[in-house]
Design goal:
- By secondary structure, the chain is mainly beta.
- It has one domain (9-245).
- It has 3 helices and 14 strands.
- The strands form 3 sheets. Strands 1, 2, 3, 4, 5 and 6 form a 6-stranded antiparallel beta sheet that branches. The chain has a 4-stranded antiparallel beta sheet with strand order 7-12-13-14, with no helix packed on it.
């Protein structure tokens, strides 16, 4: 899966010159997108979610809606559906509404109306590095878990269409996501190739955010792993989201 193209390269290059010169700079904060689960199609073949926030640098609100074909691990044609309000005083709620309107035909046409839920989560306030997550299917009794699995995320240097070494002083990062289960040998759910997609920009790091399923208890078929990706942004590392089919 891929995410938003890093914008305003010239502004980012100016920021990188401070780093290259070894000068002290004030602490900055990137654009930290939030996530909203839209749901699954009733047959479980499609999954949709939204990322939204305030763009760093410009201060413009935006919303991106991704519709994933779980069977092919790819976006459907037209996805992501993007809305950004390039005007002072615009609010996030309006940007989100515009994105929903853009995505409405696809969501209705694919019958994406079944609920989705997080069953495991590395919360932003959790004192963890986000590189592993243990989880199981939800059982019937309170707190019951069926089976136990572990997700492991590793990062490595990768080439990018963007000249990241000039921009941030190092190569972009790719990632490998592995699933371990007592039932089968470890399975690689995703591994980036030698060159990242253009839309990943200068990805600096990744973190396992959580595991999403539908409303069927004890079932992981069609589950999705949500991965946070941190591309270099105007005011620091931004956050966006990737969705990887669990494949069980």
């Amino acid at each position: 899966m891929t995410l938003n193209v890093v914008q305003a390269v010239s502004a980012r290059l100016a920021a990188s010159l401070v780093i290259a010169a070894g000068l002290a700079a004030p602490a900055v904060a990137g654009d930290r997108a939030m996530i909203e689960l839209i749901g699954y199609s009733t047959e479980g073949n499609y999954f949709a979610f939204e990322e939204y926030g305030i763009q760093d640098g410009s201060g413009f609100p935006y919303s991106n809606i991704y519709v994933v074909d779980i069977r092919t691990d790819s976006w459907i044609p037209g996805s992501p559906f993007r809305a950004r309000l390039d005007e002072d005083g615009a609010n996030t709620a309006r940007a989100r509404q515009e994105a929903r309107e853009l995505a409405a035909e696809a969501i209705d046409g694919l019958d994406i109306h079944a609920p989705a839920q997080f069953i495991a989560l590395n919360g932003d306030g959790e004192p963890v590095d986000g590189k592993t997550l243990d989880f199981g299917a939800v059982g019937w009794d309170p707190g019951a878990i069926v089976g136990m699995n572990r997700l492991t995320l590793e990062t490595f240097d990768a080439d990018s269409p963007t000249d990241c070494e000039a921009l941030i002083g190092e190569k972009a990062k790719g990632y490998r996501l592995t699933l371990e289960s007592g039932r089968v040998a470890p399975v690689v759910l995703h591994e980036d190739g030698a060159k990242l997609p253009n839309s990943r920009g200068c990805a600096m790091d990744y973190r396992i955010f959580g595991v999403v399923t539908g409303d069927a208890l004890t079932v992981l078929d069609g589950a999705m792993v949500i991965v946070s990706v941190y591309p270099f942004g105007f005011e620091g590392p931004d956050r966006r989201f990737l969705a990887v089919p669990l494949g069980q």
